[in-house]
Amino acid sequence: MRIDAINLRELHMPLVRPFETSFGVTRNRRILLAEVQSEGLTGWGECTAGEHPYFSGESTDTAWQVMVNDLGPMLAAESPEHGGQCPRIFGSVRGNPMAKAALENAIWDLEAQREGIPLYQLIGGVRETIPCGVSLGIQSSVEKLLAIIEEEIASGYQRIKLKCKPGWDVEVFERVRNRWPGITLSCDANSAYKLRDEEHLVSFDAFDLLMIEQPLWHDDFYFHSVLQKRLETPICLDESIRNRRDTLAAIEMESCKIINIKLGRVGGFSEAIAVHNAALERGIPVWCGGMLETGIGRAHNIALSSLEGFTLPGDISASARYWAEDIIEPEVEVTSQGEIVIPDSPGRGYEVRTDLIDRLTVRKETIRALALVA
Ligand code: OSB
Ligand code: MG
Questions:
Q1: What residues have CB less than 8 Å from 350, skipping those under 6 apart?
Q2: 364 is catalytic
Q3: Which bound ligand lies closest to the C-alpha atom of 52?
Q4: Residue nearest to atom 9 of ligand 1 (CA)
Q5: By Cβ atoms counted within 10 A, which residue in 97, 142, 252, 344 is the most buried?
């Protein structure tokens, strides 16, 4: 596939409600999109870097730079036939997985369109619907959180995940469990605790949580393995898992019993599939995490979640929970059973609303192969 042009765009999009984690509050997203044009087809990718380097070392600005200066020209100079060739093409660039994923995922979208099949089939997906959960940010009061949970359960979501941190944990779990003893409940600390909080974390066992996500340091395996030995509740790693090798290390060290796979965090579909396969072969369940994506990132998450090992509800929910208007058509919707029906049209399966994207764009840059520019 000859790459004719790569257009990068930054969009400003306010969230319908603020999202607070242990590392900060997000009100307005700065979305970075990659549009790859090739032989009359257009593939789209979304960079999941945050506005600040708080979740990981990448941000919208660092990803923009590395895509413009390095990854974009590398990709434009090649004629990749498969998304799976991107890790080799980007091989000389260390780190920056979210920037890489935005471009690689656009190539997978293009490849599926060229083959005339849905993206989920191209990657070997086996599901027609995917189970959905919601991730609920830290709120100004427990009452407010309870009201939101009531709504989400009524909408059909199959799992409630509560963002937590010291001061917003056991008291909250207690109130939620008293009201809904039977719901599937989990929590995500985004690295808010230290080893000295071990006793406190052990007290989470009383709430029958499906998992505790990333309680300790973002780059740790060893101390999570120490903690897991003391906990009944399964640990799920998110931030720590950057690739297949990390997956093997975490499983071997028993640092976790569940893995959250995020396309951006691991660098795109190739590595996400490799992480999935490694976990599946070892009997470790996985689920697809979210990064407050627009419909483009959401479409890729939906395709990824069709793989066999994605047995737990993911953080992929309806477009309307995030956006007044999403940039895809149709928007992502969730059934009253808390499921997303995977679309069957070629490629990502959702049309991209280029008119709306143009209106939301605050900066744009086009990268072409040097040969074409000359
Ligand atoms: O840790 O899963 C996380 C959002 C931003 C950064 C990190 C995380 C999250 C979420 C939100 O939990 C998931 C979503 O609804 O997109
Ligand atoms: Mg997480």
A1: 295, 296, 299, 328, 329, 330, 332, 343
A2: no
A3: 1
A4: 291
A5: 97
